Each structure stands twice: as C-alpha cells, then as structure tokens.
C-alpha cells in the first residue's frame, strides 16, 4: 500500500478532487492558488512576500513578482466572464504599488530593472480586463499607474524577450486611453523583436549570435506574446498580427513534439521553476485563434492535425499533471515551491525569487475564453495518433525529438546560454532531455555522485578529483539521409577535443538511441577517465527503500539494479533505464550509481546507469559507442510494465555513414 502520510499538501489533496476538465474546474483550481496567497499579501495589496531567499535584484522587486505574476491567471479569468472574490486585493495593490507617496510603492524604473518584467502582466490585465483593473480606480490612481508603466519607455532594456514587456505595458496603456502610452516606442520595439525571427515559426531570444532556443522562445515569452498581441492588436496592426498567427501555425507543429501523451513536457533549458508555463503556448494559441469577436476576413484556422480538442488536451493534461501528481510543487499552504517536482534550490537561477514560480499562471490564459468558446465546448482529445511513434528534426534548435516506443525525449547539440547561468552545462549541454525522466543538476563539483551526470559524457583529467561535461558546443550540424543524426565538437581541456554523434532510435530498436564519441588527445600523454550516463530514474523500491541489486541475471524483469561487464540497468516504478557499451576496442564497466539526493529534477532519490573507464596508455584517438535505453512506465498502472525485456535484448545498429568514419 502506498504510504501517503504527509506525502502531499492540503492544497494538493484538494486539487486531486478537481477533475480539471472544464472551464469551471480550471477556474476553481486558479482560485485556490490565488486564495493561498492572501495570508502573504501586504496590507495595501502591492506586495506578496513568500520567502526569504535572495535574488540578484532587490527585495521590493521580488515581492512585486509575487504580486504581478498571478495576474496572468486572474486577468484571464475576469476577461472570460469569470469572477474572483479576492480581486480587490490586486486592484488595491495596483494603486498603492504605483503611488510614490504610498509606503508600498514599488519604486521608479531604472535601466534594465526587474520591475520591467512585471509590467507585462499588468499591461495584459489592462488590455483584457480593464473593466476590473482600471475603470473602478480613482483618477489619481490612473495617473500613477500610467506614470509608473510609462516610466520604462525611456530606459535601457536587455536586447532579449524583455522588449515584449514594454510592448505590453504600452498596449495596456493604449487600451485604457492613458496619455502615457507611447505607440512609437511600441512600434520600434516590435520592429526590433521581428529581427529575432529565424524562420519556420521560430525566434531566438535575442539578436544574431544568441543560440539557445529554449522555452523563452515559446511558452515563457516570445510565442505567447506574439499570440496575445495578434488577438489584441488585430484592428490596429493587421499585417503583423497575421504574420504572428502564421508563425504560430508553423511553430505548433514542431512544439507539439515536446509533449507526451500524459501531459508532460520535455525538461530543457533554464527557468523550469515556471513549471506549467511550459504549456502556456497552447492556452495562448486557443485565445488567439478563437474566432468569436474576431475581425471579419481573418483566417483563424488551426494547422492539421491540431484541432480544438487536441489543443484542449495538450493544455489541460499538463495542468492536471502538476495539480494531480506533483505534490512537491506546492508547500503545505498551497504556495508554489522553488524547484520543479519538489523544492530544489540546486536548480535555481539567480533571478528566481519565491514569487517567480507564478509565471506558471500563463497556463491559465485559456480562461480568457468564455464557456461558449470552441476551446471549452470541444471534447478533449488524446495526443494525435498521427504524431505518435515519430521522429522530428528541429532544424533551428539543432535538436531531434522522438516518441518512438512511448518515450518522449530529444537529442541536442549546438545550444548554450549566451550569458552566465547557473548549471548551464546541465540545462543546455546534455546529450538528451526527457519528458518522463527529466535531467539532473550538480550539487557539488567533486565526485561523480555529486555531478548528476545523466545523459552526458563526463571527463576527468585529474584522477577523478573533478569532472567536466559538455557546456559549449561547436560546429554542430545535422548529417545523414534526411538529417538523421547530429554531429558536433566540444573541448573539455585545451589539449583534448571530443567529436560527438547522436543517433535517434529506429523502428528496429525504438527504445534505444546511440551516441558515438571520438576523444582526441593532442599529445597523447594525458590520463583520462570517462563516465557516460544514461537516464537518471527513481531509485526506490516498492518498500520505499533503496533499490536492491538483481541477483537472477540480465534477463530478469525484476525491480532493482543490474550491472555486469559493459552494461548497467535500473528498473523501478518509474520505468527502465539502461546503458550498454558498444565500443569497438575500448572496454568500459557498467555501474548503477546512486546519485546524491536532489540532483534529478523529477526524482529526488535517483539511480543512474553509468559506463566508466580510464585510459592510461598513450593513444591519439579513443572511440566510444554507447547504446542508451529508456522506457517510462505510465502512471496509470500496467502499461509497458511487462514484456519490455524483449526490447532490452535488441541492440541498436550504427548507421553505415558513421561506422565508415570510424574505420
């Protein structure tokens, strides 16, 4: 029997009773989240204080985050005709936070100020729910709000998605006819943001030279902003709005491959503390493409095979995943925690305040649609059958996604953050990222257990005192027929270069992918150690103790760990993760490594199948070939749990183009 003692918060227990299938259900879930914030709200409503951890910006801006980010959900609820008993807290806070004479004043704008980020939610609220957030206010409050939001128009901003925050500040001010709206500034920002566009629906998060294409290019910022603008500014800016809708159609057909049939999204990149904001693109797409109250002659058609029922399923399954199955995402008072599946400060960037996770409220944009909308009246549909068991090349992202065999993940090369970000090697440099197993981050810098080295090749040149992983990738490109694999270079030491090939699964072995590494040492004298990790997986047994070693051989389907010769495998309630050495002339040893607690973002107690070796003899090139196996068990019960051993017995075949190179 599952041990449920203190395993979830009262909020989580309440959420589990909510099926989260209708607009009323989702509105109720949002209201519960908003209610939980009331005890932490200041007297005049302008600040919400949720904890004492620090950020690189000031404490007032951190408490402003707690105030503003829930507005993404609240404003949407009100825009769609809903009500919320606590709306007065935010109306009061909007007036007091922008009043220089009020003790809760947020402070005036400075160059590159964090306050700019929070303007986007407020501008959106004025645009869609001015009847609640603007009309009841006094003239003095309206002047103060206009002055505060308009105060960013002459300030310097980062050359990133931040420019969208100023666009929404001006859009909101224009919607309520504030004299502080600056249409020229808004147009200039929009024109510049269009230079981020790189084709096929994709935009990078900055000018040329920025290479990461993470969730900021989609659900966290750019795509969502474009979709909202396309709905709100159609009358004034029809040509640009049409372009944004066309981009969204193309992007949607790529982005859908980042989600699995259970509602989970592939974990990749920074700011994952925003959680269900990862699915906000689908909410914004529904809002922008709903034809009700739209302009005549505008094309609101969805790209096949996406239908209203499919979009509804993609969005609501993701919200249900968090509300129903991730109790660690909330504390016992119903506040979103700093972490992912559980509180985890190892994950955080230095801009994550206790209020930051409420960016997740962007997922509630679908509430801006009324009960009668196509989104809410559609019958929820499963993940499209035509998109299952597919492999898709993401040309611009330098990624290959796959869901063959029921495991949704991606292979990645060529992405890295263009500025210092905590744990950037883990967030951008790993070889593969999964929706089911997530990724791991280091908790320290010495032992392999501390490294959390899943889905990466770790290199040590100091007798395993420290380990290095791929962070900066060079010369990344697609190769093979129809761009079927990724090839790239990386340089852990000045005298060591590593060339890596990533080969997705095939119908012959759908649960395996292949990695090939050529390690070249310029002088041949360095002694190297390597540790290559597969998927990190939940490491507890049915008795909730650490998994035991399997005693009855490789072909056993029993729960536990198994390591023998050049392979390692882990089986738990989460699924199966394994790794096999296929190298032609190198021998590696398999190990089921218990990583340090709180390295993996999904499983706080994880086990990692690893292949390890040291190379002491002088040689110029070392060729490593690795087969990586992953099968998630679905959360509902028995699917995939029996008979997987036949898939494990299969071994992936190296493409001839790569085997010829090795010769």
TrEMBL record:
InterPro entries: DUF2264_C, DUF2264_N, UCP014753. Residues 22-382, 390-659 form the DUF2264 domain. This is Uncharacterized protein.
């Amino acid at each position: 029997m599952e041990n449920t003692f203190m395993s979830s918060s009262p909020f989580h227990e309440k959420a589990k009773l909510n099926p989260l299938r209708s607009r009323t259900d989702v509105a109720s879930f949002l209201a519960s989240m908003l209610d939980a914030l009331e005890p932490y709200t200041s007297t005049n409503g302008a600040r919400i204080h949720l904890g004492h951890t620090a950020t690189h910006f000031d404490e007032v801006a951190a408490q402003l985050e707690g105030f503003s980010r829930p507005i993404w959900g609240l404003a949407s609820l009100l825009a769609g005709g809903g009500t919320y008993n606590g709306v007065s807290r935010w109306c009061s806070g909007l007036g007091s936070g922008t009043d220089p004479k009020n003790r809760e004043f947020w402070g005036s704008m400075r160059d590159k100020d964090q306050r700019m980020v929070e303007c986007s939610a407020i501008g959106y609220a004025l645009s869609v729910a001015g009847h609640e957030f603007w009309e009841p206010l006094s003239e003095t409050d309206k002047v103060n709000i206009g002055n505060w939001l308009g105060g960013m128009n002459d300030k310097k901003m980062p050359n990133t998605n931040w420019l969208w925050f100023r666009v929404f500040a001006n859009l909101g001010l224009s919607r309520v006819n504030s004299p502080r709206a600056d249409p020229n500034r808004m147009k200039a920002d929009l024109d510049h943001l269009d230079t981020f566009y790189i084709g096929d629906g994709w935009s990078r998060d900055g000018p040329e030279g920025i290479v990461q294409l993470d969730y900021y290019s989609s659900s966290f910022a750019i795509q969502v902003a474009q979709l909202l603008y396309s709905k709100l500014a159609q009358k004034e800016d029809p040509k640009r709005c049409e372009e944004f809708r066309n981009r969204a159609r193309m992007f949607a057909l790529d982005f859908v491959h980042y989600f699995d049939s259970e509602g989970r999204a592939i974990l990749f990149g920074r700011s994952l503390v925003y959680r269900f904001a990862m699915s906000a693109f689908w909410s914004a797409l529904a809002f922008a493409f709903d034809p009700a109250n739209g302009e005549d002659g505008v094309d609101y058609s969805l790209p096949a095979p996406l239908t209203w029922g499919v979009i509804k399923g993609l969005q609501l399954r993701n919200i249900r995943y968090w509300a129903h199955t991730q109790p660690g995402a909330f504390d016992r008072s119903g506040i979103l925690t700093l972490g992912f599946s559980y509180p985890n400060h190892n994950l955080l960037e230095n801009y994550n305040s206790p209020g930051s996770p409420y960016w997740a409220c962007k997922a509630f944009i679908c509430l801006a649609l009324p009960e009668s909308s196509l989104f809410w009246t559609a019958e929820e549909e499963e993940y499209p059958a035509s998109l299952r068991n597919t492999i898709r090349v993401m040309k611009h992202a330098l990624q290959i996604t796959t869901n063959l065999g029921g495991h949704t993940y991606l292979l990645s090369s060529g992405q890295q953050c263009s500025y210092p970000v905590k744990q950037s090697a883990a967030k951008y440099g790993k070889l593969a990222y999964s929706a089911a197993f997530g990724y791991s981050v280091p908790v320290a810098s010495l032992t392999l257990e501390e490294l959390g080295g899943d889905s990466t090749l770790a290199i040590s040149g100091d007798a395993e005192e420290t380990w290095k992983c791929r962070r900066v990738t060079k010369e990344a490109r697609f190769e093979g027929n129809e761009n079927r694999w990724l090839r790239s270079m990386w340089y852990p030491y000045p005298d060591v270069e590593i060339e890596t090939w990533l080969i997705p699964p095939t119908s012959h072995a759908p649960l395996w992918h292949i990695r090939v590494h050529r390690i070249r040492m310029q002088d041949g004298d360095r002694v190297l150690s390597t540790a290559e990790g597969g998927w990190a997986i939940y490491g507890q047994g049915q008795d909730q103790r650490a998994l035991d070693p399997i005693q009855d051989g490789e072909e056993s389907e029993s729960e536990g760990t198994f390591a023998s010769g050049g392979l390692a495998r882990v089986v738990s309630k989460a699924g199966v993760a394994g790794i096999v050495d296929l190298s032609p002339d190198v021998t590696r040893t398999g190990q089921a490594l218990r990583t340090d607690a709180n390295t993996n973002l999904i499983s706080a107690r994880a086990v990692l199948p690893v292949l390890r070796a040291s190379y002491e003899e002088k040689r110029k090139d070392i060729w490593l070939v690795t087969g990586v196996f992953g099968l998630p068990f679905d959360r509902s019960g028995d699917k995939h749990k029996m008979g997987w051993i036949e898939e494990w017995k299969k071994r992936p075949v190296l493409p001839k183009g790569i085997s010829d190179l090795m010769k």
